Amino acid sequence: MNFLNLILKKRNGKSLSTEDIDFFISNYVQGNISDYQVAALLMAIYFTGMNERETADLTFAMRDSGETVDLSDIDGITVDKHSTGGVADTTTLITAPIAAACGLKVAKMSGRGLGHTGGTIDKLESIPGLSTSIGMDRFKDIVADCGLSIIGQTSELVPADKMLYALRDVTGTIDNISLISASIMSKKLACGSDTIVLDVKTGSGSFMTERKDAENLARIMVGIGKMADKNMLALVTDMNQPLGNAIGNALEVKEAIEILQGEHDGDLKDISTALSVNMILSSGLVQEESAANLQVISALESGRALSQFSKMIELQGGDPGVCEDTALLPQADQIVSITSPAKGYVSHIATGEIGGAAMLLGAGRAGKSDSIDTSVGIWMKKRIGDGVDKGEEIAVFYVNDTENLEYAKAKFQNAIVVGAEPPEKKPLIYNSIS
Ligand code: URA
Ligand code: CA
């Protein structure tokens, strides 16, 4: 097979065969195909698209490009969740303990990720002592024992995605629905859980700003997972404002713990519990939504979900005392109050820009080698539709390094629109696709 022929085939709008795609991925990972030829193929895919069969073939070839995790020896149903990413999206740290408290086995491998805050792994590592690189055997033991463990993705998992993502990033080929689906689902399938629940975001803080694109992405990913015999479900959810109040690593852990303690209601709790309910239903633990709901409420109200989280923290070497006293988490030096410049209603939030302000404070990383400060970030005090007075506090910044503080403040203020009229209320969950 000649790789140039594959490029020409795709450039001319034809579909690639399963063999073509296997040839592409295995030879690229082995170093037999140059980046410039693969870049040309990616651009051809970007312009002419891939059908669902090609997208599934690409996913499976990528999944099989490295090691895969075998969870079959864990008793019970293993579950995983994935969010396409948003601001103040701490759902994993709430959903996973609830699901474990309901009897599911949550074996979650997460990334560090780039962006306005760290990934789930960075958030967890803000807990004193906690380690997310504990090895596969220990990970599986903890899942079997306490029903829940979260570790970092090993470098042996889906090497094709690491290579392709880096190339897509510099060739303008990230935002293609087939390439995104294959990238996400190859990693999820390699992690080996029986059930996968996806949270696909749409809105100003997500990379799918249009609802129909998010629904399409969700539908394709659910289809691929089913072809691989997984229990699949995707929720399409709103990301037109930060989901929770906290944006920043330790701050998000604090908010997650407070929700598990029963201290806050709101959108973050509602999406987290909806994800847990759907994990239970998709796994076939119960048949009725009302029964799944009762299980989730009981896991939260009894404190079992919190003690599940505490147990996981302890088994991974962390201080479980944070579950009683969140002041044990890293604290920033300075608290800076941000106030509203006008009276009215919060009518729009440029969510990605709010994330950008948190990143300027040091909560996220722009490049892979950047370090993050887990104690800094933003705590939002207002949501879309809330009334505000001129001079009223709308957010609090937690700050250590003041170098970019003024820039972060300006970015934050520009991102919040205060209007005279309350805006129309948007739904939190747009759709459920299974
Ligand atoms: N997240 C991924 O893991 N891959 C993509 O291509 C886009 C988002
Ligand atoms: Ca099992």
Short description:
With 434 residues, the protein is an alpha/beta fold. The chain has 16 helices and 13 strands. The two termini are 38 Å apart.
Features:
434 residues; alpha/beta; Transferase, Pyrimidine Nucleoside Phosphorylase, Chain A, domain 3; Pyrimidine Nucleoside Phosphorylase, Chain A, domain 2; Aldehyde Oxidoreductase, domain 3; 3 domains; 6-stranded mixed beta sheet; 16 helices; 44% helix; globular; binds uracil; binds calcium ion
Fold topology:
Elements: H1 3-11, H2 18-29, H3 35-48, H4 52-63, E1 78-83, H5 91-101, E2 105-110, H6 120-124, H7 136-146, E3 148-152, H8 159-169, H9 177-190, E4 195-202, H10 211-227, E5 231-238, E6 246-247, H11 249-260, H12 267-282, H13 289-301, H14 304-315, E7 334-339, E8 344-349, H15 351-360, E9 377-380, E10 387-388, E11 393-399, H16 405-415, E12 416-419, E13 429-433
Parallel strand pairs: 1-2, 1-4, 2-3, 4-5
Antiparallel strand pairs: 5-13, 6-9, 7-11, 8-10, 8-12, 9-11
Helix pairs in contact: 1-3, 2-4, 4-9, 4-10, 5-11, 5-12, 5-14, 9-10, 12-13, 15-16
Bound molecules: uracil (URA) and calcium ion (CA).
Calcium ion (CA) is lined by residues 72, 74, 76, 78.
